[in-house]
Write a structure and sequence with these properties.
The chain has 120 residues and is mostly beta strands. The chain has no helices and eleven strands. Strands 2, 4, 5, 6, 9, 10 and 11 form a seven-stranded mixed sheet that branches. A four-stranded antiparallel sheet has the order 1-3-8-7, with no helix packed on it. Strand 4 (29-39) and strand 5 form a beta hairpin. 30% of the residues are buried.
Length: 120
Amino acid sequence: QVQLMESGGGLVQAGGSLRLSCAASGSGVSFNVLEWYRQAPGKQRELVASMPSGGGTNYADSVKGRFTISRDNAKNTVTLQMNILKPEDTAVYYCYAIVRTSAGRLFQYWGQGTQVTVSS
């Protein structure tokens, strides 16, 4: 069974930093994609940062230059370093994964979410 365990959310003042981590676990699967999404109250869930296993990174325009995604393939963890946080970054942040089974099938999973609140 695949599990995504997020940690690191909390309350921080504007201009501060937080570091989110997602530990992915599952037997007999490989994690093709590990990404971070967020959903603010009354808004749609949006992609914040992604780091496909093939390399490269993608960021939402609103977080470029402030957020950094990193991945440890050996440990199946993905981290989101968030700097210069703004009140508009307040949201529930979700870890998202696409996994491939040994039979070649693809499945997607979401973590439970971690709250990030940035006060002004």
